[in-house]
Specification:
eight-stranded mixed beta sheet; alpha/beta; 926 residues; globular
Length: 926
């Protein structure tokens, strides 16, 4: 039996698990990736398996992260049956048709407004794909065995998550002996919830694949009612509107039920409740049809009123009905999808209601990284929707009391309901820290071997020894954040693309798929014959074949094949079981790729140095060295396990590869040195001797973008006459539009500097910026227009922005410390040009002026672009008159308006002093 993970591994979305046994390939779930753009892009890549080779598909439930990829899979060629519970089949039609509609509408809107980055925006799938998909569904009732093949039978057990949700119990027979009992948890529901039943006890199993959405957390012990009572009451008293983004299936019904009960009991005043979601309305009708599968019994109260369709609850299906809600004031409640603010009607309500401080946004579920909901939790002051940035002035709160996912305590309880606990557990469908924490807890509490698989990882399941890694897959988190070298991608976008490309070449291949691959591609894939069997590891986060931990020539023996590249400290995960740091959640499996690259760079560097020193590279040995595994005493059966434990321990990890160690407080001085040294060496290697520093606001965009934003706000005002908040936003947008001319000035100046530098010396007067959007993007773009180099010095921030795309690859750096970044800005600077901007611009400007004033830095020309702005921003003459600076300090800068004026001011400064603008900058400034 072989099991591979093509989603829901290293991330909380995109669940897709491929089970291969007896020549039959069965896919469990076909979820869509959500959240971060780099993950969403995976939906557009062909899967790592051939859809036409899949024989069966089992669906646990209909949430998009488990079922949303189904139409795309059919589009790619899947033609087998889709087995699920009857309620799941009915909900699937609602969710998938709605998802197709949203895909098509978003594509049309993007094409209409022109904000798609593609020439023509197209949907991931359309309604025709959904129609084909629904024909493949075959409902199977709970608790009935389904024979998929002579080797495999399965049945669905109620998971208590949403209506129709199921865990999948499988019996797998391969050869003689007892069957290998396996359970796929799907999403495990909670205990004692008002709508859904408790999850069925975990069936007896040898192997468990368990979700970990809340594997590292516990839900708030305070009830949902108690959390919302006062905030909702205050909002209603102010005449505000409560917005509740909610999942259409399960969450919307639950929220409505609780709110109506609170209003009927007097805990909240009676206000209208609007369910603005055709999908939620249709899903509620399905709930009414399957009353025996949830806690509402006959769904009718003693008064003859439907508990699912109570009075004062208004259901909206059409767009016209949805638009009419926008004209209604408060107090009222609007419930609409999607729950993570990723799309749907909630975005239109947010665009109208978020700028009003009287309103309240209530998040009632998990918010995946990269979603708008998560950005709000991270402190975002604006949310971009339909091409416009909407300011966040409304209050917001987040509540986890109604989550449909079991938390850490409930998951552990559920696992312990089995008559016998599983021997092996794959912990999936969670962010890395959540999965690592749950893995550590399961190992400590039930003694099972817990594995946190990575994306595209492959395991052979031995009935006696358990899972044996074949391919460790890709650590999503590391590939998103690690800066590559030796040809590795440098920007987050490139790194994400590399991840996507790699994922499309990993995983099990059908014979047909392999035949289509180029010979070079097949040749470069790791051979299974080189991997060797892996010894059981205490934690899957540290599992890894010898071939993946070392090169094939130096591979460890099978008995000690755990990777030593990246064992993680379990301190933060709550156990010493080697489950991985909850903070970093790295793993030996996922870091094999980067560590191999690091090792190769080390070998290349050593070889290069030997050659430069006059020595010759070492010749390959004719007789390979013996295996490094020592001879074990015959009577000591635990010796191999103890050696394995030593290899897995964090202490055995190489110091330069141990990110936990390098990130500790004791190594701050080392990080300071590295922050200085890495860019210094790279810039020297590029022979960059002098730079022109350009700074300015990130919010100063191209005129056409500023104009679109202004027009969007004006369009909103048409239906909201007298809205003072919106009128103020429009006034600000007008001023931003007026300053947008400086985007073009910065771009022109980047061109001027680069053209002059190319004529004088290609490695001097290189434009350097803070690497972000706005003015910095424009200056880098100007250099890019001429084919010249330019530099970006980015900084690590809680809400770090991507580098702009016009920086020269290899010359974009990210700093941990502001002080070191400032040093690099001025180390080679021949001039500083400051455009209108905010605190960051002022910080760099005043730091430079202070260094010049105190003669810590040799004088350089400082040009302020936009005299009216700078005169209004600060008054240097006033400071001199007040005696806090000297009169001569007023002349430390000059003003300019155009690119030619800036360049002339810089040249004039050097000419007046008899200095050479093109001479290399001093190398000993600091």
């Amino acid at each position: 039996m072989r099991l591979s993970f093509h989603g829901g591994a290293g991330t909380v979305t995109g669940s897709r698990y491929l089970l291969e046994t007896g020549g039959i390939q069965t896919l469990v779930d076909a979820g869509m990736f959500q959240g971060l753009k780099s993950l969403r892009k995976l939906n557009w890549r062909p899967p790592a398996f051939d859809p036409q080779s899949i024989d069966k598909l089992l669906l646990t439930h209909t949430h998009i992260d488990h079922a949303g990829y189904l139409p795309r899979l059919v589009h790619e060629g899947y033609r087998g049956k889709v087995y699920c519970t009857p309620a799941t089949r009915e909900l699937a039609e609602i969710l998938l048709r709605d998802a197709a509609k949203l895909q098509e509408e978003d594509a049309r809107y993007a094409n209409k407004k022109g904000f798609s980055k593609h020439e023509v925006a197209v949907p991931l799938f359309n309604n025709r794909d959904v129609t084909k998909t629904l024909k493949l569904f075959q409902p199977i009732p709970y608790d009935e065995w389904l024979e998929l093949s002579p080797q495999l039978r399965v049945r669905f057990r109620d998971a208590g998550h949403i209506l129709g949700s199921a865990m999948i119990e499988a019996e797998i027979r391969e050869g003689v002996g007892a069957p290998l009992r396996t359970v796929f948890s799907g999403d495990v529901g909670r205990y004692g919830m008002p709508l859904h039943p408790d999850p069925h006890d975990l069936p007896e199993c040898d192997l468990l694949i368990i979700e970990s959405t809340y594997g590292g957390r516990q839900h708030d012990s305070i009830s949902f009612e108690e959390q919302i009572r006062e905030p909702f009451r205050r909002t209603f008293e102010r005449g505000g509107v409560v917005l509740i983004p909610s999942f259409a299936v399960g969450r919307s019904q639950q929220v409505t039920l609780v709110l109506r009960e609170m209003m009927e009991s007097g805990q909240l005043p009676e206000v209208p409740i609007h369910i603005d979601s055709p999908m939620a309305v249709n899903a509620t009708e399905v709930y009414a049809k399957y009353c025996d599968e949830h806690r509402l019994g006959a769904c009718v109260t003693e008064k003859g009123e439907s508990r699912l369709f109570p009075h004062n609850v208004y259901l909206h299906r059409t767009q016209a009905e949805s638009k009419r809600i926008n004209g209604l004031g408060g107090p009222r409640v609007i419930i609409s999808g999607s729950g993570m603010l990723t799309g749907g009607r909630i975005l239109h309500h947010l665009a109208q209601r978020l700028p009003d401080p009287d309103n309240l946004l209530c998040l009632v579920g998990y918010q995946a990284p990269g979603t708008r909901g998560n950005r709000l939790l991270q402190g975002a002051r604006t949310l971009r929707m339909h091409g416009f940035d909407v300011p966040v002035h409304a209050r917001f709160m987040t509540i986890h009391g109604l989550s449909g996912h079991a938390d850490q305590k409930e998951l552990l309880h559920w696992v312990k309901t089995a008559k016998t606990t599983p021997k092996w557990v794959f912990v999936t469908h969670g962010e890395p820290d959540s999965s690592a924490a749950l893995a550590a807890l399961l190992e400590a509490e039930i003694g099972a071997r817990a594995i946190t698989p990575q994306l595209a990882s492959i395991y052979d399941i031995d009935p006696i020894r358990g899972p044996q890694v074949v391919d460790p897959g890709i650590n999503v988190e590391r590939l998103l954040v690690e800066d590559g070298a030796s040809g590795q991608p440098r920007t987050p976008r490139d790194r994400a693309a590399a991840m996507v490309g790699a994922s499309s070449q990993r995983g099990p291949r059908s014979r047909a798929a392999t035949a289509r691959e180029p010979a070079a591609s097949r040749k470069n894939q790791r051979a299974h014959t080189n991997a060797g069997p892996a010894a059981p590891a205490r934690s899957g986060t540290n599992a890894g074949s010898a071939a993946n931990a070392r090169s094939a020539a130096n591979a460890r023996s099978a008995a000690s094949s755990g990777s030593t590249a990246n064992p993680r400290s379990a301190t933060n995960a709550g156990s010493a079981a080697n489950a991985g740091s909850a903070a970093n959640a790295g793993s030996a499996v996922g870091r094999v790729g980067p560590d191999r690259a690091a090792r190769q760079r080390f070998i290349d560097t050593r070889t290069r140095r030997q050659t430069q020193d006059g020595g010759a590279p070492r010749e390959k040995r004719k007789q390979p060295l013996p295996q490094t595994m020592p001879n074990l005493p015959p009577g000591d059966t635990a010796a191999a396990q103890r050696i394995h434990g030593i290899l897995e321990d964090p202490a055995y990890q190489r110091a330069d590869l141990d990110l936990d160690f390098l990130g500790s407080a004791d190594l701050r001085h080392v990080r300071l040195l590295l922050d200085y040294l890495k860019p210094e060496l790279e810039l020297s290697q590029h022979h960059i001797e002098s730079t022109i520093v350009v700074f300015g606001g990130t919010r100063i965009v191209e005129p056409k973008v500023a104009e679109e934003r202004l027009q969007g706000l004006r369009a909103q005002l048409k239906g909201r006459k007298g809205d003072r908040v919106l009128e103020k936003q429009i006034a600000v947008a007008k001023r931003v539009l007026a300053k947008s001319k400086y985007y073009q000035v910065a771009r022109d100046f980047g061109r001027v500097v680069s053209k002059q530098a190319q004529r004088e010396d290609a490695c001097r007067l290189v434009v350097v910026t803070g690497g972000g959007p706005g003015i910095m993007e424009a200056a880098n773009r100007g250099a890019f227009d001429t084919g010249a180099k330019s530099i970006g010095l980015n900084i690590m921030l809680p809400m770090e922005q991507y580098p702009n795309p016009y920086i020269t690859p290899g010359l974009c750096f990210v700093f941990r410390y502001f002080a070191l970044r400032k040093m690099h800005f001025l180390n080679r600077a021949k001039a500083l040009v400051a455009f209108p901007g905010g605190y960051g611009t002022f910080d760099e400007l005043f730091e430079t002026l202070t260094l010049i004033q105190t003669q810590t830095l040799d004088p350089i020309p400082v040009v302020l672009v936009g005299k009216q702005f700078w005169k209004g921003a600060f008054n240097a003459r006033f400071l001199a008159d007040e005696g806090v600076i000297d009169p001569e300090d007023v002349d430390l800068f000059t003003f300019a308006e155009t690119a030619d004026e800036i360049w002339a001011a810089v040249q004039s400064w050097y000419k007046r002093r008899g200095l050479d603008l093109y001479a290399p900058a001093p190398t000993d400034r600091f």
